[in-house]
Amino acid sequence: MSAGDNERRELEEALHVDEIGIRPVPPEGRDATALQQFWIWAGANLAPISWIVGTVGIALGLSLLETILIAVIGQAVGALIFGLFALMGHRTGVNQMVLARATFGRRGAYLPALLQTLMATGWIGINTYVVLDLCLGIAHQMGLQPGDTVKYGLAVAIMIVQVVIGVLGFYAIRTFEKYTVPVVTVVMVIMTVVVLTRLEDISWTESSLAGGERFTAATQLLTAVGVGWGMGWITWASDYSRFTRPGVSPRRLYAASAMGIFAPLSWLSILGALSGTASQAGDPAEIVASLFGIMTVPVLFVILHGPVGTNIVNIYTASLGLLSLDMKLKRTTASLLTGVVGFLPLFVFIESESFAAGFTNFMSSVVIWLSPWAGVTLVDWYVIRRRQVECDALYADPRTSRYGDVNMRAVSAFLAGLASAWAFQYGAIEAFQGPVARAMGNVDLSWAAGMGVSAVLYFLLTRGRADVAAAPPARRVGSAGENVVSS
């Protein structure tokens, strides 16, 4: 098939609704390349929200150098973890929350599926807020003063665009990111050049904090914007990698997936930190307006792609989360529902006095459950089951599935990790300030405690148990990502 034929096929697929839902992707539907996986994750992260979070360290009082180093190192760690989850979907052709059934049990996996759905809808609200705020910034640059009717009307219009693409599904998302990410990259390069030309007499090491307060802010940044931001996509990973061609090298897919997360995040975090230092404004639109002046209008109209490119990924994954709860819905209906529910966190951020504080609190709640889930899942997949699952059992009746109804060992390890993550967390509000973190001088090590405790405990609870070993040879998932039968 020629390159032109491939392009035409991709466009035709993009205009049709993806009806696969949470069933394993059939071999004929797995035609994505490693590069296309890179475009998806780069498109989801090459967005104003990734640039704005770069200002969080500055807002917390850290120096420019500290903010950049902590964010980039943490995001590298998070991206490397993310790549391990992308390989799971490629091997099985199954989405992430259905794969969780092998670990937590047929209905035990409802817990992470519900948390995943709530988290994805939360991101829909956050990213739509950023779009809305930037659009209103454009209006102010044009001398307009839009009221609440315009504000919420614009939010509805933006949500409709996102939901339409999300409803179409994977193939539409893949094509959208493939053709728009290169254009947005050019715009971001221009933004970077403009910011660099506006930097005058900045201090790389000046901080408004000292001693323990400085270290506290550093660990908060590492959790929320560093590791937490980098690994924050792990529960999305297999939802998209399952469409990758079975013949694609796992190493190549791992590299493409990890770089799709790390490259835009690190670049835009550095840009955000520089912007926050140069502008000293606290609101996203104020930062843009103060730095870009007359260029604000054309620049912002183009970079609106970013949050849309992110939210179409969120809407699709949130719909799979609902279906993984065994809800009797069509995927298209689930996508529409998650788009509507995404308005709730949007209202919270619209009414929030500080985006930085509200965002940090949201990320703190994410890391609390995400890190212990990651610890249990990584040990189960790579150590206990050795990357082997029985796909049919993932969809079987809870009473007959070989993975059982609820795997209490996994749930117990997860809850222990959850408690540990909270105990070691020092967030911006008292509810997210654990006793161990306070006793250690307000240090936030929640992500490491949650993942470490859950991983070690789950390994100790399951090692040597035949009932949680790898799937039997007769019904396992082969290296090409298809069910195989051994003689």
UniProtKB/TrEMBL annotation:
Q: Which UniProt keywords apply?
A: Membrane, Transmembrane, Transmembrane helix, Transport
Which InterPro entries does this UniProt record tie to the protein?
Pur-cyt_permease, Pur-cyt_permease_Fcy2/21/22
**Membrane-related topology note:** Multi-pass membrane protein
An annotated GO cellular component of this protein is:
plasma membrane
Extract the GO molecular function terms from the UniProt entry: transmembrane transporter activity
| Transmembrane domains' residue ranges | 38-62, 68-88, 109-132, 152-172, 179-197, 217-241, 253-275, 287-313, 334-350, 362-385, 406-425, 445-461
The subcellular location is: Membrane
Family per similarity comment: Belongs to the purine-cytosine permease (2.A.39) family.
Q: What is this protein called?
A: Cytosine permease
- Lineage from the top down? Bacteria, Bacillati, Actinomycetota, Actinomycetes, Streptosporangiales
